[in-house]
Amino acid sequence: MKYPVTLYQDEEGWYVVECPIIPGCMSQGETETEALKNIQEAIQLCLEVRREKQLPLTIQSREVEVPA
């Protein structure tokens, strides 16, 4: 299954990656590749914990249009 992620480089040069539809699910890495690999594991672990606690696995995500 595919999950959306956001990826950015912080002020110290680390790549931070988050899965916005899973509350609190984030990771990092020294490279984009490492960060993306790490978020895969983080997603699996977050989903496992949410299942155990009988929480919704994901939250709704929407897009809104902002006039330019």
Describe the structure.
The chain has 68 residues and is of the alpha+beta class. The protein has a domain at 6-52. The chain contains 1 helix and 3 strands. It has a 3-stranded antiparallel beta sheet with strand order 1-2-3, covered by helices on one side. The longest helix has 21 residues, at 32-52. The radius of gyration is 14 Å and the shape is flat. The mean pLDDT is 97.
Task: Summarize this structure briefly.
The protein has about 70 residues and is an alpha+beta fold.
List the helices and strands and how they pair.
Blueprint (H helix, E strand, L loop, with lengths): L5 E4 L5 E4 L7 E4 L2 H21 L16
Antiparallel strand pairs: 1-2, 2-3
Descriptive terms for the model:
alpha+beta, three-stranded antiparallel sheet, 68 residues, 1 helix, 31% helix
Give the tally of β-strands.
3
Give, in spatial order, the strands making up the sheet with the most strands.
1-2-3
Radius of gyration: 14 Å
Class per helix and strand makeup: alpha+beta
In DSSP terms, counting alpha (H) and pi (I) runs of 4 or more, how many helices?
1
**Helix content estimate:** 25-40%
Please give the alpha-carbon distance between the first and last residues: 34 Å
Order of helices and strands: EEEH
**What is the 3D shape?**
flat
